[in-house]
Amino acid sequence: xxxxxxxxxxxxxxxxxxxxxxxxxxxxxxxxxxxxxxxxxxxxxxxxxxxx
Length: 52
Ligand SMILES: [Zn+2]
Hints:
mainly alpha, about 0% strand
């Protein structure tokens, strides 16, 4: 299968962090979600995307 983070092809039996090719890619994905969750609009600037 293909790693959704780096696009590398790998075998599910060989990875330590499915569905990613490596623990590193798993952490990248986790960090990406955390960034979106914690990401706050700049103070004093209303973010139009937050209204959706
Ligand atoms: Zn990867």
